[in-house]
Amino acid sequence: MRKYILFCALLFGVPELNAQMKAFGIWEGKMNAGVELRIIFRIYKDELNRVVATMDSPDQGIKDVKASSVKIENDSVYLELSQYNAKYSGKIIGDTIMIGTFEHGTSLPLTFRKIQSVTVKKRPQTPIPPFPYIAEDLIYYNADKSISYGATITIPNGKGPFPAVLLLTGSGQQNRDEEIMGHKPFAVIADYLTRNGFVVLRVDDRGMGKTTGDVLSATTLDFARDAATSIEYLKNRNEVNQSRIGLIGHSEGGMIAQILGAERNDLSFIIMLAGPGENNIKLMEDQNKAILTKAGMSEEYINSYLSLYRKFLTTILTSDQSSVLNNLTKVVDDWMAVTPNNIVKATTGISDETTKMRFINQFRNQVDRPWFRYFLSYDPAINLKKIRAKILALNGASDIQVISKGNLAAIEQALIQGRSAGYEIKELPGLNHLFQDCKSCTVAEYGQLEQTISPVVLKIITEWMKAVK
Question: pTM of the entire structure?
Fold first, then answer.
């Protein structure tokens, strides 16, 4: 009888064991979230014989995020990542394919293939130790100790004090290197500037790396408060020349620099790398037009979609939570009433009531949150006019995320009316939003290029900073 019971236990345990064995290993998927992003899952048993999983997003600098929940049933895999309010549901086909859906605000199809190892892309500019300067990893806190900040400070060898700069990342959660698609732009900038005599502080964003703090309800104004804490940290370092502290902000980081520059009189200089000059609704509109044009969409289709997009953004901005869904639905219905069906389907994917509501809800989930509402309402001109520090504004002429001509013209118009001690504005030919020398100059190309940032940009930044007195 005991043998029979043991046999039954083994028999019924085999399917679960087989399912787990099929799920164990390294899985690589490519998710289209406007740009192609690699997602890596590692599923295995830990030293306590528990089934665990971790996620990497190499293109975003996200590594070893432990799944908060892992469930394997027959050929199905369910993972939850509560840190990012995300989850994945997939089904294993054969031994090497897993087909499923990744949910993070919106739902996206995501297919994985089992691989033996993760390919590391060539990034020749990424600095490798040993360095001819001091590099120190830090943890420091805001005034009430509610947030801890993970950062790296690099300090030139020799006798200080040295001029110093804080690097401010672009939109979305970024680590201290502003890592994207295997590139580490801030690591490259910090290395170059420190070799040229500058102290450089670069910091993990909230919820990234070793920085804590609420992300879901935070706005750019909260990120500016974080940056203010980092400025105070720099001011307390003996190696730093108190009269020559500045900011370099990329994209949304330029917006943060504007906020701080308008508030403070202790900043010597500000460099904006594709920082906003136009109001952000116009900037987003121009961005969408450039991306759709690169994708080969006709002008008729683009103009029709942009009329909807513009109304969507203004509706989000002017509606409260109780009315926003009804208001967005009316906007779509009114647009569909005057738009040919072929354009509706090609630009939004709407073909019936179900796809219409899916489109509305996906758009709402992406933009109807505190950060986006603040972003849409922000007017750069107000703060640009108040800044007393010297300003350098750079924009790549081939940037399709922040379109250079209109954006730089808006920055100049504001600074003409402002208080800056001096400013310089440059459009740089052939460079994209990451300030890479680009070819097709699409967003997808960022990860295909080996260059992280143009040496020309590094030289311009360094020479301008050295000239600031």
Answer: 0.83
Q: Is 467 helix (H, G, I), strand (E, B) or coil?
A: helix
* 62-66 and 69-73 beta bridge pairing: unpaired
Rounded distance, CA 436 to CA 420, Å? 29
Q: Confidence band (pLDDT; 50, 70, 90) for 35?
A: low
Q: Which residues pair with 381 in a beta bridge?
A: none
Q: Specify whether 144 is located in the same domain as 289.
A: no
State pLDDT tens for residues 104-162. 767 788 999 988 888 778 999 999 999 999 999 999 999 999 999 999 999 999 998 99
- Mark whether 347 and 362 lie in a shared domain: yes
Indicate which CATH number applies to the domain containing 63.
2.40.128.120
Cα separation of 99 and 102, whole Å?
A: 10
Q: Hey, what amino acid is at 451?
A: Q
- The residues, ordered by sequence, that sit 6+ positions from 357 with a Cβ below 8 Å of its Cβ are 329
Are 150 and 265 part of one and the same domain?
A: yes
| CA atoms of 162 and 178, how far apart (whole Å) | 24
Q: Per the domain annotation, does 12 fall within a domain?
A: no
Q: What would the DSSP string read from start to end of 31-91?
A: EESSSEEEEEEEEEE-TTS-EEEEEEEGGGTEEEEEPSEEEEETTEEEEEEGGGTEEEEEE
DSSP 286-329: HHHHHHHHHTT--HHHHHHHHHHHHHHHHHHHH--TTTHHHHHH
- Residues 98 and 205 occupy one common structural domain: no
- The candidate with the shortest Cα–Cα distance to 224, out of 200, 254, 259, is 259
- CATH number of the CATH domain containing 397: 3.40.50.1820
Encode pLDDT of 355-378 as tens digits.
Answer: 999 999 888 887 888 999 999 999
Q: Looking at the domain assignment, is residue 128 inside a domain?
A: no
Residues 136, 208: Cα–Cα separation, whole Å: 18
Domain range spanning residue 233?
A: 133-279+378-467
Q: Work out the end-to-end distance of the chain between its first and last CA atoms, rounded to an integer number of angstroms.
A: 90
Q: For residue 191, what are its two tokens? A: 């290395």
Mind listing the pLDDT tens digit for each residue in 40-86? 999 988 888 888 999 988 877 788 888 999 998 888 999 998 877 88
